[in-house]
């Protein structure tokens, strides 16, 4: 460790001793008695410690507050994403529970029929359809991946959609999935 690293570490250590309790009290205003308060305060000082070439801090409390606010927003975003994920998992679980054994068999048969329908399509037409519907790619992205024109992508999608429509006229998958939901 160089002398600069040691002096920087000592400086941040002094800031920690002088401002840690203050920062925790300030964070409690936003987070209440959350166990995250100490974690965010410690992470704020860790980010200061890891900052390369930190110049002398004129207003350490302002800097610590800014860093802590960013960490709070990251925490809230992460919690929102976790909540959304859990809601999606619960929704899928509820749908699976709502489907009777007969409904599951019918759904499997319908999916197998769709698979047979897609297998009848030529390779690039099938690939275009799957990239659009499953992967969510745009027509320009599909064209670039397959080395074809966007016009071909559009034609292939029309062709695959017509094949799916013919299949759906024979086996109404949409009605089946609506009944089971």
From TrEMBL:
Residues 113-160 form the RNA polymerase sigma factor 70 region 4 type domain. Keywords: Sigma factor, Transcription, Transcription regulation. SUPFAM superfamilies: Sigma2 domain of RNA polymerase sigma factors, Sigma3 and sigma4 domains of RNA polymerase sigma factors. It holds the Pfam family Sigma70_r4_2. Transmembrane segments: none annotated. Residues 15-80 form the RNA polymerase sigma-70 region domain. Belongs to the sigma-70 factor family. ECF subfamily. NCBIfam families: sigma70-ECF. This is RNA polymerase subunit sigma. The lineage of its organism: Bacteria, Pseudomonadati, Pseudomonadota, Gammaproteobacteria, Pseudomonadales.
